[in-house]
Write a structure and sequence with these properties.
Layout: H1 11-34, H2 41-48, H3 52-58, H4 62-85, H5 92-108, H6 114-122, H7 127-154, H8 163-181, H9 196-211
Helix pairs in contact: 1-2, 1-4, 1-6, 4-5, 4-7, 5-7, 5-9, 7-8, 8-9
Length: about 220
């Protein structure tokens, strides 16, 4: 059969298929704008152009909706990056810098990076969501950094260090960057704005220089 002969989905069918994505987009907007506690499911449904009952057909609770938003906008990019790391050609230092820049392009530079601020500000009020975020986002991210550092040490590129402390040194400035973006950044004059790619590149190069073994003459 010629592909052009295949039946075209009815507009209503296409609309139904698109609804989960539209609800996730609307939820992301509102969670980033207002936070988890202040966002009401009625608002999400209205912004997506559906009823509250329709939203609950796809996501039984606001917590389920938030988890779906995180998996789509945070977990998915991390998973993609992990797959590409396995095929990276270059030194461990180059891999570390590439990984940090990719994190920015796929997450930090997007609207979804506001989720990091949401979690940090509301974690104590919603410990179950904080535990979910730790399990699905923080721990996998730490595992990627840990793998790079352990590889570099094993190959003699980096000197032996406490890997668990070092991975926080890698990640903390990245978290600062997204927190700045969603807090003080918009309030500062142009002359004080941080250029993310330059910031990350310099941070990565400082790390690599500090971790690298001295070159033997």
């Amino acid at each position: 059969m010629n592909p052009t002969d295949l039946p075209v989905p009815h507009k209503r069918e296409r609309r139904k298929q698109d609804r989960p994505g539209e609800l996730l987009d609307a939820a992301l907007d509102l969670f980033v704008e207002k936070g988890f506690a202040a966002t009401r499911v009625e608002e999400v449904a209205a912004r997506a152009g559906v009823s509250k009952g329709t939203l609950f057909l796809y996501f039984p609770s606001k917590e389920d909706l938030f988890k779906a938003v995180v998996r789509e906008n945070v977990v998915h990019p991390v998973t993609q990056g992990a797959g590409e790391m396995a095929h990276f050609k270059g030194t461990s230092g180059e891999l570390l810098e590439w990984m940090m820049l990719q994190w920015w392009h796929r997450y930090g530079a997007t609207k979804a990076s506001g989720i990091s601020k949401l979690i940090m500000s509301e974690a104590t009020n919603f410990p179950e969501l904080a535990a979910f975020y730790r399990q699905e986002v923080i721990e996998p991210g730490q595992a990627l950094v840990r793998t790079v550092l352990q590889r570099a040490i094993a190959q003699g590129e980096f000197r032996p260090v406490d890997v668990e402390l070092a991975l926080h040194s890698v990640m903390a400035p990245l978290l600062f960057l997204v927190m700045w973006k969603h807090s003080m950044g918009p309030c500062c004059p142009v002359s004080e704005q941080i250029k993310p790619e330059q910031f990350i590149t310099q941070h990565a190069q400082l790390l690599v220089r500090g971790l690298s073994l001295p070159q033997t003459p």
